[in-house]
Amino acid sequence: MSARARAARVQGTVRIVGAGLLGASIGHALTALGVDVALDDTSPAQLRLAVDYGAGRRAEADDEPSLVVVAVPPDVTSDVIERELARFPQAVVTDVASVKLEPLRALRDRGVDLTHYIGSHPLAGRERGGAISARADIFIGRPWVVCRDDETSTGDLAVVEALALDLGATPIEMSPEEHDRAVALVSHVPQLVASLLAGRFVEAPDGSLSLAGQGVRDTTRIAASAPELWVQILGANSAPVVDVLDELAADLATVADALRSPDAPGARRAVADTIRRGNEGVERLPGKHGQNRRFEQVVVMVDDTPGQLGRLFGELGELDVNVEDLRLEHSPGAQFGLAEISVVPRAVRRAVEGLQARGWKIASTTND
């Protein structure tokens, strides 16, 4: 057993119900730590695929898990939680659904004993689902919300937090209400906004879309998500989502009214205030490692040939410049790309002068 495997906090068998993206990803991460992972799924094909890719073994009738992770679609989450609590009364049961209040209400209405149930939600994922898209590293550095209540024992809470820590995530305690309001703002409404914007492209002229740069790609990246899953998520968290959408609609109406008469008194200020408020909001977003720390950007022109990006990273390392973040942009038809490198402010001059001395072309910096 490797040193990493000996460091696993979760003990015993972990049963994962649902071998899709999140379930299989959890399985991969725990299996890499040497944890016994038993997978179950209503889809035989999905289960076979997850097992073949190494996310765990098939669950057996005589398994006695210490922890059950429910990773199924939102419309069946409460049903599966109820079943698993009844089948394994000594195990801690958690789920990873992106809505927490609706399943909890359903279980309470049925009179289910929730002593060993703790809802949780890793803020991680990918645009594409399924076991084939699963990755062990998608939880690293991501928040993992844990929704305890007055009945939650310290021991059971420790088990769920150990799961999050083993997967490299950061446990955060919230009430189900707090969680659902938060994800409405930072996850569910952004999904709708991205989808609505990308929907404008369907009938757009090809010539217009040929002008698309990295900004619009960043803004619409999550529009590739699965509609059938998001119908369930948005339906289960409809009230908080509608609250944010109503406020957003009012903001959009204000800007639209201002632009209908851009020379009217106060119109330009309304637009400027909208952009400024966006600046302030972006500044509040946590940066690398959760820090509210801002970086400067250096944009480097990189030839579209093998090995150039690796050479750039290597030479930045020689210059003792740490790459805090990276974004790549390719212009259609161009034989080069733009690498936007985020660095700490004090490293900008060293990066620019050092790279230029090595023959790199600097397209721009934050201060340009």
From TrEMBL:
Residues annotated as domain ACT: 297-368
Catalysed reactions, semicolon-separated: prephenate + NAD(+) = 3-(4-hydroxyphenyl)pyruvate + CO2 + NADH
EC number(s) from the headed UniProt entry: 1.3.1.12
Top-level taxon: Bacteria
Keywords from the UniProt entry: Amino-acid biosynthesis, Aromatic amino acid biosynthesis, NAD, Oxidoreductase, Tyrosine biosynthesis
InterPro entries named in the record: 6-PGluconate_DH-like_C_sf, ACT-like_dom_sf, ACT_dom, NAD(P)-bd_dom_sf, PDH_C, PDH_N, Preph/Arog_dehydrog, Prephen_DH
Amino-acid biosynthesis found in the keyword field: yes
GO MF terms held by the record: prephenate dehydrogenase (NAD+) activity
Entry protein name: Prephenate dehydrogenase
